[in-house]
Amino acid sequence: MDTFRQRRILFDFPVKMLAFIFSSIAYFTNGWAELASDHAFWHYVGLYPWGDIDHQRKWWNQAPWWYLVTWILMTVAFIIQFLTSVAILVVIVKNKNTLCIHKTNLIVSSICCILLSMAMVLWGTKYWKERESSETSGLYVSLGYSYWLLFVAVIFSMVDVAISGYIYHCYTLRKRNDSH
Question: Using one digit for the tens of pLDDT, what is the confidence trace for 31-49?
Fold first, then answer.
């Protein structure tokens, strides 16, 4: 593979990994929302139900629909991002650089960006409504650090889509010019 193409894919990989790292940290930490009462008691709510797993409870029976949808979106995005990161590593190591790889990378990056964005918007919207309804009872709800880590992951994911699109565009132009 020539260095021109190799440099592009090497430039995409760190951005893809940063999006994966930030979304993974957001997914597995318990700071999606912060709850406080008038007595200054802070409680953190996580997306991944670590406490329920320890107690063998079926958390999905008690969770609201939007919580489950957010969890599903984040789980699917996590799996896709992990598999894509491994695939890009294989491409880099084996020096395989084909149109199919770049097209697939663009499609998968776009899907991950959409999934992460949907999770962020859904969680933020529903917690904003919870916040409005709970302030009258003395309970204060705010978005936690995990949510903001997801926000950073979405930004990196958008940059990844832009880079993947640019790589795909350059590769198709180069292929077209090479064929003439």
Answer: 888 877 766 666 677 776 6
Query: Can you give the CATH number for the domain in which 74 is found?
Result: 1.20.140.150
The pTM score is 0.84
DSSP string, 85-149: HHHHHHHHHHT---HHHHHHHHHHHHHHHHHHHHHHHHHHHHHHHHHHHHGGGTEEEEE-HHHHH
Domain hosting 153: range is 3-179
43 forms bridges with which residues in the sheet?
Answer: 35
Q: What is the DSSP string of 4-17?
A: HHHHHHHHHHHHHH
Rounded CA-CA distance 75/70 in Å is: 8
